[in-house]
Task: structure prediction
Amino acid sequence: MSMRRIAVIGAGAWGTALAIQAARAGAEVSLWARDPGRAAAMRAARENAAHLPGHRLPDAIAVTADPAAALSGAELALLVVPAQHMATTLEGFPRLPPALVAAKGVTARGLHLPLETLALARPGLPAGVLSGPNFAAEVAAGLPAAAVVAGLPPELREQAIAALATPAFRLYGQDDAVGAQVGGAAKNVIAIAAGAVMGAGLGENARAALVTRGIAEIGRLALALGGRAETVAGLSGLGDLLLTCTGPGSRNFSLGFALGQGRPLGEILAERNSVTEGVATAPALLARARAAGVEMPIAAAVAELLEGRHDVPAAVRGLMARPLRDE
Ligand SMILES: NC(=O)c1ccc[n+]([C@@H]2O[C@H](COP(=O)([O-])OP(=O)(O)OC[C@H]3O[C@@H](n4cnc5c(N)ncnc54)[C@H](O)[C@@H]3O)[C@@H](O)[C@H]2O)c1
Ligand SMILES: O=P(O)(O)OC[C@H](O)CO
Result:
């Protein structure tokens, strides 16, 4: 059986890029936007001017703000609203087909990974995650990229991969959805740290140290929550961490960079119409890690930086002053 009809819930940059990708792979796609005015504008212009300008929406994409129309006939749903808004968004979708969550984060309320949010709203729904080093604009442009589809019962996972993959968008299956979600959420937080050290002019050595110690933090939490080390070393872990800590196109990195330059958080956020998941995720990730008995000193430093309790040099001094120990 193939998944010919796909509903994409959330018309930000990534939802729009995934809708374009699914259409490119041959699916009939409905793209749900929560604002009817914005949905109408996208239908008229065949473009998401607010979140993904310059990428034409193929004819196979129908844009709607009506949940029932979005889900009509859909055999797969891609959930691509920000992690913090997924629970409230799901209230508008009384039934769902098997789903892949493409959001990356931990909720401030409940400290949930995205699949935990979904499981609370729709217990028993077959679900997995789609995650990897993927800037939306590059995927929309058809540039080469890879990601994992983690979780879902194996037969549905294969069908989802077949429905979404093209030669330029290579999808790997695996069954460690926990590891994939921890990697996707935590890389946002570590990328804020990487941006901050670069914005403060602390150098490439500092960034490389942060990325490496960052993956150690991610690994500790992933394993504590039941994930696997191979996942942490894979596309949804190290792969996404590398992209987000080095790509100036990352919202998390650029927010950290601006903080490192000494700009206030409120001012940086006020200039953005896009989500920077690491901001809400940092304290939630830290709390989740503490509840699991896992130390995440870089995530803790980012949370303190975001709270305004330290500037970047002080946060780095704190990290460097931790007791010396074996790697
Ligand atoms: N942009 C990327 O390159 C990319 C790639 C991979 C994963 N992601 C992840 O995808 C998720 C969505 O990010 P994005 O980049 O598509 O978004 P975006 O920044 O382009 O747009 C913001 C989105 O948030 C929605 N939103 C804002 N307030 C809301 C509310 N109160 N309730 C419901 N929705 C609300 C908007 O409608 C819009 O869809 C995030 O978890 C992000 O980490 C993004
Ligand atoms: O722009 P960012 O920092 O939200 O990162 C986008 C994607 O998650 C990269 O894989």
User: Anything to note?
Assistant: The chain has two domains: 5-175, 178-320. Residues 10-15, 34, 51, 80-83, 85, 89, 102-105, 134-136, 274-275, 277 surround nicotinamide-adenine-dinucleotide (ligand 1) (CB under 6 Å). The first helix runs from residue 13 to 24. Residues 5 and 73 are 7 Å apart (CA to CA).
